[in-house]
Structures are given as C-alpha cells and as structure tokens.
Amino acid sequence: MTQALIKTKEKKPISLKNIYSPSLRQEAWKNGKWFLFLLPALLVYIIFMAAPLFDSLRLSLYTGEGFSPTTFVGLGNYIELFTNPLWVERFSGAVLHTCIFFGIHMLVQNSLGLFFAVLLSSKFKGRDFFRTIIFTPATLSVLVSGFLWTLILNPQWGAVNIILEKVGLKAWALPWLGEENLALIVISLTSAWQWVGMPTVMFLAGLVGISEELIEAAHIDGASAWTTFWRIQFPLLMPVVGIIAILTFVDNFNAFDVIYAMAGARGDPGYSADLLATLFYRTGIAGEHPVGIPNMGMGAAIATMTFTILMTGVLLWLFLSRRQSADL
Fold it and tell me: Are the C-beta atoms of 298 and 81 separated by less than 8 Å?
C-alpha cells in the first residue's frame, strides 16, 4: 500500500519538450492568460504610438487656427499641399533636402562605420580605447554638439577658418553655414560625425559573430585580407547592412534637432537646409513667419505624408530582404 502511494505521488520529469508541446500551447491560448503579459506593453504602445498616429490622421482632415482645428475639409489639406505653388515649393524642397541628408549619412556615416568596424575587429594595442572614442560623440546631446559645431564653423572666429588661414588656405575659409550650397552638406557631415559610432558598433558585432574557421580557411587557401573581406565577411554582413540602412532611413527622415540647432527652424539660409521635420514644426507647431499662427491640420497632413514615405521605404526593404532570403 505504501509503495502504491509513493508511485502515485511520483511526478514525471519536466522537460523543454513537454513545456513547448502543442497541447500545452493550445491550453495556454485557450485560457487567455498570455494576454496579461502583453497588456502593459500593449497599453504603452497604444497610448504613446497608435493613438497619436490615428489622431494625426484625423487632424489632417480638418483646418483651423491653433492646435484644435474644427472645420472638416476632408482631403483639402492634401490638395492644398500638392497644388498650391507655395506649399509645393516648400514640401518638395523639404523632401529633396531630406533625401540628400539621408544619402550623405548612407555614404559617409555608414561607410566610415564599416571601415572603423573592420579596423577595430583586428587585434592591436589600445583597441578598447579607440572603440570608446569612436562611440563617445553619440552620447552627447544633439543640441549641444550642434551648437558647438556652429561655434567651430563661425566664419569670423571659428576654429576651422582660423586653422585654414594659419596653414595658408585662406581661400578655403568660407561661411560654412551661410551659403545655400554648403549649409546642408556641412550639417549632414557634422551629424554623420556624431552618429558614426552606431553603425560601427553594429558592424563590429556582425564581424565578431563570423566564425574564425571561415577566415582561417580563406587564409590557408591563399586569400588576401581584401579578398577575404569582400568574398566572405561582407556577404555575411548583408543582414546587418540592411538593418543599418533602414534605421538610417527612419532616423534621417525624422531628423529635426541638428537642423534646428545649426540652421534654425527655417533651415537657413533660404530654406536650403529645410527638412520634413522642420517644415512640420513651422507649419503645425510654431507657425510660419511672419504670421506665426500654427496650422495644425496642414502640419498633420505633412506628418502623414512623412509617415507614408517611411512606411513605403520600410515595406520595400522588407519585401526585398525576404525575396533575397528566399532566393538563398
């Protein structure tokens, strides 16, 4: 009798196979308790992400002064945005400048990030120190670094022009933020300087994750370091390249603070550094000079068009990445 009771009280050992069995998953799904774990994150997402997005879509269908437009105009704001010559000029210019801003970051920031990652993945004395130095600018406030660069690039007493004059290159001492054909490029380069540490860290993580056996096998076969990188390491980094590209795309199309710090809300001089975010700020929040009355409906329409551009780019990247993985 005692042995029988002991046998009945014995429990089967719990294994991962039993925990993740289809029957247990179905039982947990039916009980609905899984929803309690998702509820906090879901509430945060709805309150701070989904609700403002849908409210912005709603506001784009209204017009009126101030932050609570009440006159329903349907697609009137969008029609005005794409037919009124003034809005067409401002919006198309902001889109073009944002694309240039993004292109410079892709070309300069991410290329340098890959270059630094390759250097920092090798073993040499002081490697950890240089890893810290490259990432340090990313920890600074964008407004602070933008203001410091504005001082450094000052045409009269800025450090850049003083150094150029000292070395005999006075002709190169230009008003870097005062010329329309230079302002956006200079601001983009200063932004790339600050954020180059982010792609460097991501590329470095990808390079560290590549098996050393592949690199050693390539060296045994007589492959040079250049051939090893382009034939083995870089193809294995393509998923990281895609992630960095889409993050750069989203961040640059939402960029505001660096332009505001170095060129003001209008992207001076002459709107040459005006991005979609600064156009939205002037239209929907601050009000365009000299009227100074915010048009929240038009601002919401600009924000919606920005969201549409971002969503199109992200969906296109997802489609191409899945197609590429399917081909492999």
Answer: yes
Q: Which residues of 104-134 are buried (b: 16+ CB within 10 A; e: fewer)?
A: bbbebbbebbbebbbebbeeeeeeeeebeeb
Superfamily of domain 77-200+253-300 in CATH is MetI-like (1.10.3720.10)
Per residue in 58-84, pLDDT (tens digit) is 999 998 776 677 889 999 999 999 999
The Cα 229–Cα 236 span in angstroms is: 10
Answer whether 274's CB lies under 8 Å from 90's CB: yes
Pairing of strands 62-63, 71-72: antiparallel
In contact, 177 and 263? CB cutoff 8 Å: yes
Joined together, the tokens standing for residue 277 give: 């975010």
Q: In 215-253, which positions are buried (b, 16+ CB within 10 angstroms) versus exposed (e)?
A: beebeeeebeeeebbeebbeeebeebbeebbbebbeebb
Tell whether omega for the bond before 290 is within 30 degrees of 0, i.e. cis: yes
Residues 6+ apart with CB under 8 A from 132: none
C-alpha 3: how far from chain center: 66
- pLDDT category, 85, cuts 50, 70, 90? very high
The whole-number pLDDT of residue 263 equals: 94
More confident residue, 21 or 59: 59
More confidently predicted of 97 and 293: 97
pLDDT, position 191? 96
- Joined tokens for residue 306: 């920005």
Domain positions in the chain are 77-200+253-300
How far out from the chain centre does Cα 300 lie? Answer: 21
Write the single-letter amino acid at 206: G
